[in-house]
Amino acid sequence: MVKIAVAGGSGQVAQEVIDALVAAKKHEITILSRNASAGNSTPGVTSRAVNYDDKSELVEALQGIHTVLSFIQLLSDPENKSQKNLIDAAIIAGVKRFAPSEWGSAETKDMPWWVGKGKIREYLKKVNQNGKVLEYCLFQPGLFLDYLAFPYRTAKHVAPLNTMFDYQNRRAIVVDGHDFIMTFTTAQDIAAVVAGAVDYDGEWPVIGGIRGNRVTVSQILKIGEKVRGRPFAIDAVKLEDLEAGNLKTSWTLETRHSSVAEDQAAIFLKSVLIGTLLSGAKGAWAVSDELNRILPDYKFTQIEDFLAKVWEEKP
């Protein structure tokens, strides 16, 4: 049993992980939030409101904590001050393990909405440059497999979002000449692996790849055509157009994340689509498998089984 602090605990991914940790019935969990509700009815879970601008308050909140899992929303922390303060406080408080707010791709180049991840990676390297003072792991599960079920919800907390693979309307956007690899992992599997990593007695790897499914774009389309009953309409975009910020497609993303303001949604969604395609062509979504090797007995949800079940008898 260890004491775990979950920063940004009201977020969707955080709640999936909290549920898995609670189900394990092994740990004491403190949810840190800017607007924590008074009390928590779940046994073994407490909520605490914190000011991420007040480092001394964070140090106090982290007293006795073994592991910090951060899900701080990057869009609300553009200068990365909250996470840097959290890291500093964790070191002062004697926290053993820290997981920054990653939960996505291996690389972040060409994804401006995730620029903070790169800066926090560098910050964590710097704090250990003269000797390890904080064990940390970058949890990287690729893209949520649940998103290929859009508009249907398959996770308890992670809301449906559409992607360049639109199974509902049997269409997709691909990069011409680039059949790149992507990693898809269900929200449930991600949460279970994080819970397993918390229990792991060895040292956490710095890169924590979680490889639920490793598939090429063409394989994703082939599975889609199989479970949806007919070929997909394909929009193929040029890499050089994406590099120039041009999106020449017949459709685009429509569903914004709750962290994105409605008046910024159209510009943001265009950026996300361009960035996901561009980074994918450069290998950003082909994540590694460090945590698969640490937890060799864990059985991941397989993409074809998952999608066949989701789309069975759907119009």
UniProtKB/TrEMBL annotation:
PANTHER family linked: NMRA-LIKE DOMAIN-CONTAINING PROTEIN, NMRA-LIKE FAMILY PROTEIN
Record GO terms (molecular function): oxidoreductase activity
Entry keyword Oxidoreductase: yes
Family classification: Belongs to the NmrA-type oxidoreductase family. Isoflavone reductase subfamily.
Domain NmrA-like: residue ranges: 3-244
Entry keywords, A to Z: NADP, Oxidoreductase
Protein name (Swiss-Prot/TrEMBL): NmrA-like domain-containing protein
InterPro entries: NAD(P)-bd_dom_sf (IPR036291), NmrA-like (IPR008030), NmrA/Isoflavone_reductase-like (IPR051609), PCBER-like (IPR045312)
Domain of life: Eukaryota
Keyword Transport included in the entry's annotation: no
Origin species: Cudoniella acicularis
